[in-house]
Task: inverse folding
C-alpha cells in the first residue's frame, strides 16, 4: 500500500458539526493506524456561504479534540496552498485540459433558459436533466460552432464548464461505473442516467467536484474517507480521474449520525430542542450574534467526547467502550465501520463524561474546580479542594456540577430545603441541637471518627432516635438532605463553623 495520506476537507460556512468532527476523527485514526499523514484542506470555493471566523473555529475544534492535522494551512505546507480559494489558477488549467480532450465543454445557458426547460419538462411529466440526451439542443460548445463559442467568450458572455458524463458514441467508455467502497462494498452506477455536472462556475471558481479531484491528486491522497452524502458523487469523481488518466484513491463513505428520536440526520435543531450541543466548541454567529452551545463549554472532557464519537458508527468487535486516543489509533479499522446510520444518545454522551471523570485524579479535578471557585470569589487551599472533590465526584457528571454538590463546604447555607425543614425540624429539635452543640464543643480532636463516636454514644445513651438528631444536624450543615458522610463534612468545615451553623439554624427556625 502507498504511504497513507488522508484529508479532512470542510467548508468554512459555519461551526463544525459533530458529524464533521467524526469524519475528521476517523481520518485521523486511519492515518495514525497506518503511519500516515492527516491533512486539513479548506474547501472555500462557495464564496457566497463563506464565514470569516469558520476556518479558525475548525482548527481550534480539531486542536481541542486532540486530533490536530499534520499538514494544512500554515503548517507543513508541502502541497500548499491548502485553501481552495488560493488555488483558482490550478483548477482553471485542469478545466481547460478537459475541454481540450473533449471531456468537458462550455455552456452558455442562462438561468432563465434552464428554468424554461425545467418547466417545459414538468408540464410533460418529465424531469429535466442536462446530459447526453439533450446537450446538443442546448446553448453550449457542442451545439455552437467553434467561432461562435470564441466570440461569446471574447464578448465576456458568462459561461460554465460542464463535464461530459456519458458519450454514447464512445465505444471505449463503459456503460457503468463501479467503486469498491471500503465500507459499503461494490457500488455501481449507470452513466446514461447521470447529468453533466458543472466543473467551473461563471464566477471563475471551480465547483467542489473539480477542485476536490484535482487537489486529492496533487496532494497524493490515497484514501477518501467522507460522509455518505457524497456517495452519489462517486461516479463523477471516478469518471474525472479516468478522464485525466489518474489513479483514483480508495473511497470509504461513513454512515450518518442520526437523531436521538425519530429518523433523519442529527441537526442543530435537534440539539436545541432536546438540550444538548451539536458543535464541539461554542460558536458565535458574527452576523446575528446568536451563540450556539459547545461540548467544551458545557463541561465535557475532550477525551470523553472523542471516545463517544468513535463509537458512533464504529465498533471494536468487543465489549470494551472506554478507549484512549492511542488505543483507538491501534484498533481502528474501516472494516468495522457500519453501513447503517448511528443513533446519537445524549445520555450515553453524559455517561462517557462521567466515566472519564471517575478516571481523573482528585488532584487534577481540584485544579479545574479551583478555577470555578475563583470566579465565585472563593480562594481555598488546594488540599481542601481536593478533599471536597474526593467526597462528591462520584455523584457528578461534569466538573460544573461540583458547586451544586458541594457549595456547603465553602459557605454557610442561606436557604434551607422547605420540605426537609417541615419533615425534620420538630418542636424538640432546638433543644436537641443545643445539647449537640455542647457535646461538639467538648471534643478536642475534631475529626470525623471522634465526632461520630461521641455523638452516637450520646444518642444511644439517651435513647434518642437517630433521625431526630442526624437529620436536623445535616440540614443545619448542608441546607438540604444531601451530601457525603455527615461527620466528614463536620471535620472539613471545622468545629467553629459546625457550631455556628447549628446556632444559625436554631435562630432561623
Result:
Amino acid at each position: 500500500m502507498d504511504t497513507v495520506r488522508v484529508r479532512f476537507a470542510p467548508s468554512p460556512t459555519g461551526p463544525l458539526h459533530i458529524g464533521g468532527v467524526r469524519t475528521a476523527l476517523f481520518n485521523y485514526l486511519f492515518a495514525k493506524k497506518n503511519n500516515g499523514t492527516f491533512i486539513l484542506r479548506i474547501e472555500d470555493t462557495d464564496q457566497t456561504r463563506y464565514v470569516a471566523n469558520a476556518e479558525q473555529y475548525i482548527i481550534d475544534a480539531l486542536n481541542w479534540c486532540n486530533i490536530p492535522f499534520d499538514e494544512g494551512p500554515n503548517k507543513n505546507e508541502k502541497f500548499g496552498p491548502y485553501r481552495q480559494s488560493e488555488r483558482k489558477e490550478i483548477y482553471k488549467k485542469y478545466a481547460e485540459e478537459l475541454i481540450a480532450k473533449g471531456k468537458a465543454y462550455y455552456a452558455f445557458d442562462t438561468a432563465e433558459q434552464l428554468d424554461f426547460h425545467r418547466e417545459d419538462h414538468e408540464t410533460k411529466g418529465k424531469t429535466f436533466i442536462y446530459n447526453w440526451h439533450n446537450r446538443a439542443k442546448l446553448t453550449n460548445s457542442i451545439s455552437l460552432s467553434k467561432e461562435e463559442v470564441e466570440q461569446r467568450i471574447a464578448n465576456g458572455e458568462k459561461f460554465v464548464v460542464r463535464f461530459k458524463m456519458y458519450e454514447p458514441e464512445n465505444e471505449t467508455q463503459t456503460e457503468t461505473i463501479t467503486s469498491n467502497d471500503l465500507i459499503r462494498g461494490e457500488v455501481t452506477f449507470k452513466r446514461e442516467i447521470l447529468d453533466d455536472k458543472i466543473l467551473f462556475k461563471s464566477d471563475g471558481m471551480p465547483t467542489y467536484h473539480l477542485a476536490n479531484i484535482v487537489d486529492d491528486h496533487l496532494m497524493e491522497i490515497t484514501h477518501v474517507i467522507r460522509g455518505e452524502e457524497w456517495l452519489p458523487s462517486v461516479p463523477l469523481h471516478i469518471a474525472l480521474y479516468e478522464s485525466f488518466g489518474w489513479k483514483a484513491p480508495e473511497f470509504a463513505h461513513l454512515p450518518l449520525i442520526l437523531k436521538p428520536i425519530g429518523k433523519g440526520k442529527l441537526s442543530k435543531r435537534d440539539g436545541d430542542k432536546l438540550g444538548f450541543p451539536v458543535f464541539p466548541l461554542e460558536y458565535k454567529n458574527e452576523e446575528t450574534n446568536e451563540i450556539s452551545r459547545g461540548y467544551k463549554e458545557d463541561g465535557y472532557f475532550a477525551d470523553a467526547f472523542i471516545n463517544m464519537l468513535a463509537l458512533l458508527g464504529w465498533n471494536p468487535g468487543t465489549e470494551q467502550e472506554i478507549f484512549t486516543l492511542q488505543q483507538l489509533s491501534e484498533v481502528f479499522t474501516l472494516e468495522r465501520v457500519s453501513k447503517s446510520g448511528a443513533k446519537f444518545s445524549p445520555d450515553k454522551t453524559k455517561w462517557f463524561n462521567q466515566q472519564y471523570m471517575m478516571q481523573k485524579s482528585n488532584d487534577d479535578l481540584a485544579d479545574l474546580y479551583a478555577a470555578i471557585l475563583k470566579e465565585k470569589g472563593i480562594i481555598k487551599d488546594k488540599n481542601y479542594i481536593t478533599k471536597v472533590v474526593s467526597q462528591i465526584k462520584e455523584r457528578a457528571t461534569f466538573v460544573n456540577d461540583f458547586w451544586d454538590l458541594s457549595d456547603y463546604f465553602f459557605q454557610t447555607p442561606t436557604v434551607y430545603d422547605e420540605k426537609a425543614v417541615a419533615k425534620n425540624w420538630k418542636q424538640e429539635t432546638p433543644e436537641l441541637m443545643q445539647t449537640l452543640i455542647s457535646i461538639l464543643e467538648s471534643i478536642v480532636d475534631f475529626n470525623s471518627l471522634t465526632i461520630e463516636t461521641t455523638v452516637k454514644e450520646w444518642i444511644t445513651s439517651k435513647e434518642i432516635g437517630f433521625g431526630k438528631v442526624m437529620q436536623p444536624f445535616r440540614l443545619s450543615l448542608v441546607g438540604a438532605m444531601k451530601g457525603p458522610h455527615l461527620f466528614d463534612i463536620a471535620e472539613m468545615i471545622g468545629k467553629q463553623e459546625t457550631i455556628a451553623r447549628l446556632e444559625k439554624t436554631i435562630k432561623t427556625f
Notes: The mean pLDDT is 94. The chain is about 45% helix and 10% strand. Residues 181 and 252 are 5 Å apart (CA to CA).
